[in-house]
């Protein structure tokens, strides 16, 4: 038998409020619970939908864009790579200064990178640039 979750359990597992999960259901981003009223419960499928939604939000996607993504059958990684910008889409680029004349340009949305991943990449590339400077001296 598939594991069943209460709304409170989903909230604890995902760090979301009841209100947020209900809003996602209202917007059609997450399926409605099984059963009704006090007998309502959620399944692993609901958990996966919410996790996927959080993944895309952390990648910088708007809820409208997430609705489009959830309507596609590709895996999240395939979908992130295959998306082409549409007219009017706004993309945010990070420009990180590493050294004089050396700058790293990242579009975290397209790269599927969180801020933590971007910082780690900067630190690793920065260490390489420092090593090159050290080797030159």
TrEMBL record:
Residues 4-72 form the HTH merR-type domain. SUPFAM superfamilies: Putative DNA-binding domain (SSF46955). PROSITE patterns: HTH_MERR_2. The lineage of its organism: Bacteria, Pseudomonadati, Pseudomonadota, Gammaproteobacteria, Alteromonadales. The keyword Isomerase does not apply. It comes from Alkalimarinus alittae. Keywords: DNA-binding, Repressor, Transcription, Transcription regulation. Transmembrane segments: none annotated. This is Helix-turn-helix domain-containing protein. The keyword Glycosyltransferase does not apply.
